Amino acid sequence: MKKIISIIIIVAGLIFVGIAASEYFSGKKQVEVALADAEKIVDKSKQKSLTADTFSYEIGDVIGLLKIPSLDETLPIIEGTDYEMLDRGVGHYETTKLPGQKKQILFSGHRNTVFTKLGDLKQGDRFVVEMPYGNYEYELKSTEIVDANDLSVIRDMDEELLTLSTCYPFSFIGDAPDRYIVYATPIVKS
User: Fold this and answer.
1) Active site residue 144
2) Suppose 100 and one of 16, 52, 108, 129 were both cysteines; which one would form an S-S bond, judging by CB atoms 3.0 to 4.6 Å apart?
3) What is the pLDDT along the chain (190 residues), one digit of tens a residue?
4) According to its UniProt record, which residues of this chain constitute the active site (predicted)?
C-alpha cells in the first residue's frame, strides 16, 4: 500500500512540474512574439510625424519597448495590466500617461517572467523606453515596498516619473502580499 501511495505522490508531483514548465514556456513564447511586434512598431523611420499626444493605441496593443541595460533586458510594453496583457510583457497602466507627456507612467510586470531581476537594480541604473514617436531615458532614484492593495503609488503629478511595479516578495508562491515599486526620473539631455 505504501508503494502505491508513493507512486501516486511521485506521479502527481511530475504532473505539477509538467504543468508549471508548460506555463513557463508558453509565457516565454508569448513575450517573444510581443517583443518582435514591439521592435517593429518602434521603427521610427516609418512614423516620424507621431508624438506622444497623437500616438493611438487600444487595450492589448503592443506599444513599445522597455530596456533595462544593467539587467540586459529588452521587454515589450503592452497596453493594459490584465493577466492576459502581463503574460505577454510589461503592462502600461491605462490611466497613467506615456513617456513625453510630463506625468506619471506606470508599468507593471509579473515577478516570475519579465521582472524576475527587478530587485537586483540599484540607484542610478537606467531605463530606456522606446516608443514609435521617440526614445526616453530614465534613472532609478528610489524603491519601496507597499501593500498589494496600496494604490497611493498611482499619483496625479506635474512632472514625469516612470514607476515600475511587481509582486513582492520575489520568491513568494501564490498571490504575493506586497508590491515592489521602482521610481525613475527622466534624464535631461544637455
Assistant:
1) no
2) 52
3) 777 776 777 766 666 655 555 555 555 667 777 777 777 777 765 567 888 888 889 999 999 999 999 999 999 999 999 989 999 999 999 999 999 999 999 999 999 889 999 999 999 999 999 999 999 999 999 999 999 999 889 988 889 999 999 999 988 888 899 999 999 999 977 5
4) 110, 167
pTM for the predicted model, two decimal places: 0.81
Is there a contact between 104 and 183 (Cβ–Cβ < 8 Å)? Answer: no
**110 included as an active-site residue:** yes
5 HSE (CA, 13 A, CB side)? 2
What structural domains and CATH numbers belong to the chain?
2-186 (2.40.260.10)
73 φ/ψ angles, rounded to the nearest 5 degrees:
-115, 140
Q: Which of 167, 181, 182, 184 is catalytic?
A: 167
From the number of C-beta atoms within 10 Å of its C-beta (0-12, 13-18, 19+), residue 95 rates as exposed
Calpha distance 103→96 (Å, rounded): 8
C-alpha cell at 2: 505504501
Q: Which of 88, 92, 110, 179 is catalytic?
A: 110
Yes or no: say if 69 and 34 are a contact pair by the CB < 8 Å rule: no
